[in-house]
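Example complex used in Figure S2.
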Amino acid sequence: MYNMNLMAPRIRLLSRRLLKRPNAFVAYTILAFSYIVLNLVLPANSGTIQAYHLSQTEYHILIFLIDLPLTAIWFTAFYGYKALQDYTTLIKKTEEGQSFYKISLGLEWLAWGAPLCSILSVILYAFVHHNVGLYTTAIIIEHYVSLLVAVVAFTYIGRGTHTLAKHHRPTSRSVQTIMALFTVIGVLYSFFTFNEVIGTVTNPYRLPVWIILLTIIVPYLYAWYMGLFSAYEILLYRQKAKGLIYRRALSYIAGGITAIIASSIIIEILTSDTKYLTRLNLNALVLIVYVFLVLYAIGYVLVVLGARRLKKIEEV
Amino acid sequence: MTVKSDLYERVVRVTHIYLGPAADRFIARQVENHLHKEPAKISETDLAQLIDWIRVAVSLLTDDQEIIEEYVQQLQRLATRPSKLKTPVKGLTANEN
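Predicted assembly (413 residues):
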């Protein structure tokens, strides 16, 4: 019969193994493969087909051609956050270690969020294909999941950068510049969003205006403000940090995080203002989005380069 | 505060100019791994060997020879700079030494 005294430690060990975070590259492979296969197998997004006058076959070919570079960009994101987390394990007992770990968690949310949102979108629209009545539900779920990823990711990044930069007081000019930039982004985003929503028979969010304002616009603006200020704080930390060699490595990370935050915000704004984008030629639209996705990938590559250099300082 | 930990602090202070918050960990690692001593117990006689190991380690971190030489020279100056607590002179007070 089983010895009950030995069972408890085994159960604890099993629980720890099951709850252990999955290997980043294994997870990426599964997600990327799943996304490509689902895109090819599941029915196409009828809204996109109608908007760009595509056939099912043309849609699937186009999606496959877009999927390949997209999954490559996701790979850089997974590689980037993993590299930063590998560095933070070496300095986890230090204050900057804790800060960089929080930043890496934010980057991890962004890295996972992209493929998960894409896969969710493909699955939801496959359901919609068989039941048109689910279209509204699909849109709402899609918007809120993307929003959740942005809010959580930028909150983590913000907490990390704030701890790093807490000993360095921002200049009043910097704060005013950030506020001005945030005001412009906020006003433009709100204008484009309300322009899509007000006066249309079926607004793209399928929600009343006040709910859109309180549960979509406000949280996105919060997330983007956290993102903008985080970018400033990491650049400030880099500027004020001591150590010539340390600061050079930090430049890559600061530049990378800034690029990731900026491109994430722009991509989100671009993909949410569909009314204006559907007027664009499909090639132009894909090109514009890809320019910022490449910037996003470059950001993660810079994070990898910086994290490797910092890790080397802790290893030699 | 003993003479030896004072030397360690001075080495870390110089290293801080180049490695920032990683300075203390870096020097502790060099002392433990290459001199096989506790960091606080390094003496003036260990300094030359420590500098050699630091030069090798920093060469792996940067290709900038100017920075490496500048760093090493700053460390070498520590060997020539007399420590206030090194050999107290008889007849003088602690402050005068």
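Chain B touches chain A through 17 residues (CB under 8 Å). The helical segments of chain B are 3-19, 23-35, 47-61, 65-80.
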